[in-house]
Amino acid sequence: MLKFIFLAILSFSIPSLACDENNPALLKFIESDRFEITGPFSVEALEKEHMIKIRDTGKLLPFGYANEFWVKFKNQMVEGDEIYFFVNRERGYYQDGHFLVRGGCTIDMLTGSVS
Description:
Elements: H1 2-13, H2 26-30, E1 35-41, H3 43-49, E2 51-53, E3 60-62, H4 67-75, E4 82-90, E5 93-102, E6 105-114
Antiparallel strand pairs: 1-4, 2-3, 4-5, 5-6
């Protein structure tokens, strides 16, 4: 039921943008049985939640060893963009990460865990 409500809100709140195979619509992932999508999340909330200490330097960085990728990911953002967390589960496969979404289309993906 929550997934249906989320889909309804998302479909009415996102302006129409021509998504393509390189930038598929977020709804494509939401409607899939393999994906769980949550969000949107603010940059500030994500950086606070994913603060990781670097062993060699003792420095705390958002997304730790993946900080360089995080910085490139968030620097693509323009006003109105949103970040969603995803989990992709298939038989014998797991992947999670974040989608950068613009106008309902996924612009980029920051991979977290893969197993």
